Amino acid sequence: MLDGVLDEALVGTLSTVVDGWPWSVPTLFARIGDDVIVHGSTGAGLLRHAAAGARVTLTAYVLDAIVVSDTLFNHSANYRAVVVRGVLKPVSDSAAALAALTDRIVPGRTLETPPITAKELAATLTLRLPIEDGQWTAKARSGGAGVDSDRWTGVVPVRTAYGDPITDTGDEIPDSVRRLVSGG
Fold first, then answer.
1. Which of 23, 65, 149, 150 has its CA 20 to 30 A from that of 57?
2. Does domain 2-182 have CATH number 3.20.20.150?
């Protein structure tokens, strides 16, 4: 289940503690083998703190359905969630890690763009969170409300769907974006 959630979820929450206070930031991520890749600006406070050796967690989840019951108490959700904890490490090849992250979000996009520049690499902190035995947990719920009632109960599936692209610049929508929105 761990790999499945990490491969399906697009956004996770990276968390740590700074001066006794929890600090959580939503982030795009990608699983590459036994590592979770995260990135951000070299000026990003949480990433700088984590890069210095602070312990972190990355939480990701997929919401599969809303469970509707006949009582408020029994309403729920079907989901799959994981938490990976550890210490962020430098990646051996930042350009390759950023390319893998980009292609995870928009498959094939790196074939349509120029390579990342040295200036862009210098402004980006790219780190990996090793997935190690005993340092992750997974939790899931599936099924209905589990009650016997004459009133309606059931499950409402939740789906993530891409909408029509909204052009910012340029005339032609790239093939990678067309494939993404078409589901192919």
1. 65
2. no
